[in-house]
Design goal:
- By secondary structure, the chain is mostly helical.
- It has one domain.
- Helices cover 72% and strands 1% of the residues.
- The protein has a two-stranded antiparallel ribbon.
- The radius of gyration is 22 Å and the shape is globular.
Length: 492
C-alpha cells in the first residue's frame, strides 16, 4: 500500500490562485443566474462581469504571500502581478464598452460574459506559472473561450474568422505540446527555472534538439503574439469580430504571451546563445516590418489597426530580445501606453458602427470617415488624437513608449535594432495619418450618423483614454517607477 501523504493547507499558499478563482466563480455565477431567470437585461451581466473583475484586481493588489504556491506550480512574482493588473484593467475597460444603445447578437447571451471571465482566468494562469503544463492549460482555456466568442457574432465572416482562428490555434497548441515534450525529454522537468539550470549546467548539450524545441515553442507563442509568419489569421479574424473584441485581442492575449516569452527566452538571452538570439532577432525584425508595409495598402481602418497591432507586437517583442532590466520595463511601459491608445481607437470604431456600413466596401472603410470634421468635429478630433498617438507623434502617449524602447536598445549596444525600430516607426506614421487626411481634408459624399451607439459609460471610457493620451508626459516617471519596482523584485 502507498502511505498517505498529509498536506498542510498553509503550505499550498492558496492565495496564489485566488484572483483566477474570482474570475471562474464569477463566470459560474452568471451561468447560474441565467438558469434561474432568462429574461434579465444584458446590462446586468456586463456589470456583474465588471464587479468580479474589480474584486479580482483587489485580490491582486492585496496579495502579500510567498512567490510560489500550489505545489510550486504558481509563481506570483512582480512580473506576474504587474501583467495580471494590465490584463484585468484592460478587461474591465473593454467590458464597459458593451454598455451600448444597440443590442448586438452575442451580448444577449449570458454565456458570452461567462466565457469572457473564463478567458481572463486562462490568461492569468499563463502569466502566473513557469510550468509548461499549466501555461498550456491556461493558453487552451483562454483560446477555447475566445474562439466561441468570435463565432457568436452571428455574421458569416465571424464564423469564418472563428474557424481560421481555431485551426491556427490547434496548430499552435500542437507546437507548444511538442516543444514542451522535447524540453522534458532533455531536462526531466517542465518548470522553466529548472530547465534553465539543467541546460546551463550541461552547457546546452544536444544543441540541435534544443533548437528544435525552441522553434516549436516560438511557433506556438508567435501565433498568440501574431509574429510573422504566424500572423496571417489576424486581419480576417479582427474584421470578422466586433471592434471591441478585435481591440481586446490586440492587447490582452498578447500581454500574456509576452510574459511567457519573457520567462522562456530569458534562458537563452541571458546565456548569450547565438542561434536562438538570431532566430528571435529575425522574428522581431520581420514582425515589425512586414505588417507595416502591408498596412500601407489597407483601405479599411479595422484591418489597418490589425496590421498595426502585429507591428506593435514586434516592437514590444524586441524588449525580450534585448533582455535587460531596462528593456523589460520598456516592454510593460510600451504595452500599457499601447493599451490606452489602441483601446481608444477600437472604441471609436465600435461606437461609430451603424447600419449604414453596407453602403461602403467594409464596416470601417476610409470613405466612411471622409469629411468627418464637418459633421462631427469632436469625434474627428478624438479619433485623430488616438491615431497621432499610435503614430508616435510627440507628446502623445505611445511616443514615450517608443523612446524608452529605443533607449533600451541603444544602451544595450543594439544600434542596428534601434535603427530598424526608428525606420518602422516612420513607416507607420504614414498609414496612421491617412485616416486623418480623410477626416479633415476630404469632402463627404454621403450622410452617416456617428457615435450612435454611445452611452455615458462608453463615452467615459473613451474620455479616460483621451485624457491619458494627452497628459501621459506627466505620468511616465511615476509609471516607470512602479514598473521598475515590480520588474526588479522579479529578478528580470
Amino acid at each position: 500500500m502507498i502511505p498517505a501523504v498529509s498536506i498542510d493547507f498553509a503550505s499550498l499558499n492558496f492565495g496564489t490562485i485566488v484572483p483566477m478563482l474570482v474570475a471562474i466563480v464569477g463566470a459560474l455565477v452568471i451561468l447560474c443566474i441565467d438558469l434561474v431567470n432568462k429574461k434579465l437585461d444584458k446590462s446586468l451581466y456586463v456589470m456583474l462581469t465588471v464587479l468580479f473583475l474589480i474584486v479580482d484586481f483587489g485580490t491582486l493588489m492585496g496579495y502579500s504571500g510567498e512567490v510560489r504556491g500550489m505545489f510550486d506550480l504558481m509563481v506570483v512574482d512582480g512580473i506576474s502581478i504587474l501583467s495580471q493588473c494590465v490584463i484585468v484593467i484592460a478587461s474591465i475597460m473593454f467590458a464597459l464598452l458593451y454598455m451600448t444603445k444597440q443590442r448586438f447578437h452575442e451580448t444577449q447571451y449570458p454565456e458570452y460574459f461567462a466565457l469572457y471571465l473564463f478567458m481572463i482566468a486562462g490568461f492569468q494562469f499563463m502569466v502566473s506559472s513557469d510550468s509548461l503544463i499549466l501555461i498550456f492549460v491556461g493558453l487552451e482555456t483562454a483560446s477555447m473561450a475566445l474562439y466561441t466568442m468570435i463565432a457568436m457574432h452571428n455574421r458569416n465572416n465571424a464564423i469564418e474568422a472563428a474557424i481560421k482562428y481555431f485551426t491556427m490555434g490547434a496548430l499552435a497548441a500542437g507546437f507548444f505540446a511538442f516543444g514542451s515534450l522535447i524540453f522534458y525529454a532533455l531536462t526531466g522537468t517542465v518548470e522553466l527555472g529548472k530547465i534553465s539550470e539543467v541546460l546551463v549546467a550541461s552547457n546546452f548539450e544536444n544543441y540541435p534538439l534544443i533548437l528544435v524545441g525552441v522553434v516549436f515553442i516560438l511557433g506556438a507563442l508567435a501565433f498568440k503574439l501574431s509574429l510573422v509568419p504566424f500572423h496571417t489569421w489576424v486581419p480576417d479574424v479582427y474584421e470578422g469580430s466586433t471592434a471591441v473584441l478585435a481591440g481586446f485581442m490586440s492587447i490582452v492575449p498578447k500581454m500574456a504571451g509576452f510574459v511567457v516569452a519573457l520567462r522562456f527566452f530569458e534562458i537563452f538571452v541571458a546565456a548569450n546563445n547565438a542561434w536562438v538570439t538570431a532566430i528571435l532577432y529575425g522574428a522581431v525584425v520581420l514582425t515589425m516590418t512586414v505588417p507595416n508595409l502591408i498596412a500601407l495598402l489597407q483601405t479599411d481602418i479595422n484591418r489597418m489597426l490589425a496590421y498595426s497591432s502585429i507591428s506593435n507586437a514586434g516592437f514590444a517583442m524586441s524588449a525580450v530580445l534585448i533582455g535587460t532590466t531596462q528593456a523589460t520595463s520598456a516592454l510593460f511601459l510600451y504595452w500599457i501606453l499601447f493599451l490606452v491608445t489602441n483601446l481608444g481607437g477600437f472604441a471609436m470604431l465600435w461606437l461609430n458602427r451603424n447600419k449604414d456600413y453596407h453602403t461602403f466596401k467594409s464596416d470601417h472603410s476610409l470613405e466612411k470617415y471622409a469629411g468627418l470634421v464637418k459633421t462631427s468635429p469632436f469625434t474627428a478630433s478624438i479619433m485623430g488624437l488616438f491615431l497621432l498617438s499610435l503614430a508616435g507623434i510627440p507628446p502623445f502617449a505611445l511616443f514615450w513608449g517608443k523612446m524608452y524602447l529605443l533607449g533600451a536598445a541603444v544602451n544595450s549596444g543594439m544600434f542596428v535594432l534601434a535603427i530598424i525600430i526608428a525606420i518602422n516607426s516612420a513607416i507607420a506614421a504614414f498609414y496612421y495619418l491617412r485616416p486623418i487626411v480623410y477626416m479633415f481634408l476630404k469632402d463627404a459624399d454621403h450622410e452617416v450618423k456617428y457615435m450612435v451607439n454611445a452611452t455615458t459609460i462608453s463615452k467615459s471610457v473613451v474620455g479616460f483614454c483621451a485624457i491619458v493620451t494627452i497628459i501621459s508626459i506627466f505620468m511616465i516617471e511615476p509609471l516607470l517607477s512602479i514598473i521598475s519596482y515590480f520588474v526588479q523584485i522579479s529578478g528580470f
